Amino acid sequence: MGYINWIRERVGHEKIFLNFSGVCITDDKGNILLQRRGDKNKWGFPGGALELGESAEECAIREAKEETGLDIKIDYLIGVYTKYFDDYPNGDQAQPITFLFKGIVTGGSLKTDQKETLELKYFNPNQFPSLVNKQHEDFLNDVIGDKRGVYR
Question: Does Hydrolase count among this protein's keywords (predicted)?
Answer without folding.
Answer: yes
